[in-house]
Amino acid sequence: MGRCDPGLKRVSTLEVGDTDTAVALGSGDVPVLGTPALLALAESACVEAIAEDLPEGETSVGTWAEIEHLRATPVGETVRATATLIGHHGRRLEFKVTVDQDGDPVARISHRRVLVERTRFLEKLGLPSTV
User: Fold this and answer.
1) Which positions are annotated as active-site residues?
2) Would you say 80 and 13 are in contact if contact means Cβ atoms under 8 Å apart?
3) Where are the beta strands (DSSP E) in 4-131?
4) Domain spans of the chain?
5) Over the range 73-94, which residues count as b (16 or more CB within 10 Å of their CB) and which as e?
6) pLDDT digits (tens, 9 = 90+) for 92-124
7) Quick count: other Cβ atoms within 10 Å of Cβ 6?
8) Are 87 and 36 spatial neighbours (Cβ–Cβ below 8 Å)?
9) The whole model's pTM is what?
10) 52-71, pLDDT tens digit by residue?
């Protein structure tokens, strides 16, 4: 499996659009950044943080997350997720992600991913390995 040494870090940003809202995602009835979109942004930052450390044919899959969504973010505002790899235990990777809007905290997320061989993972699901 890949090196994925703790300390790897990546920042991803999202300008909140109508499709990112709680209303659009079915997670609430207010037009602000929905928690599912927040989690997707955090996962994207985690994936990008380790991308260059993974050998050919290897990927990671999300297995667990704990989210503390602290503040609402309206459409048109930009949020920034900073993902840091804090632990690598066998195939398991542990991340801490902070999300902010103009320096103000929006969310704190703990996230776990597992390293897998892409082809084998997809074949177990009966999916083509070229996905």
Assistant:
1) 35, 43, 69
2) yes
3) 9-15, 58-69, 78-89, 92-101, 104-117
4) 9-124
5) beeeeebbbbbbbeebeeeebb
6) 999 999 999 999 999 999 999 999 999 999 999
7) 12
8) no
9) 0.94
10) 999 899 999 999 999 999 99
Q: What are phi and psi of 22, to 5 degrees?
A: -60, -40
Q: Which residues contact residue 127 at a Cβ distance below 8 angstroms, ignoring those fewer than 6 apart?
A: none
Which residue(s) pair with 60 in the sheet?
115
With a CB cutoff of 8 Å and minimum separation 6, the contacts of 75 are 16, 17, 18, 20, 21, 31, 32
19/23 Cα distance (integer angstroms): 8
7: left (phi over 0), alpha (psi -120 to 50) or beta: left
Which is nearest to 115 in space by CA: 73, 57, 39, 35? 57
Which single residue is written with the structure tokens 């999202």?
Answer: 14
Architecture of domain 9-124: Roll (3.10)
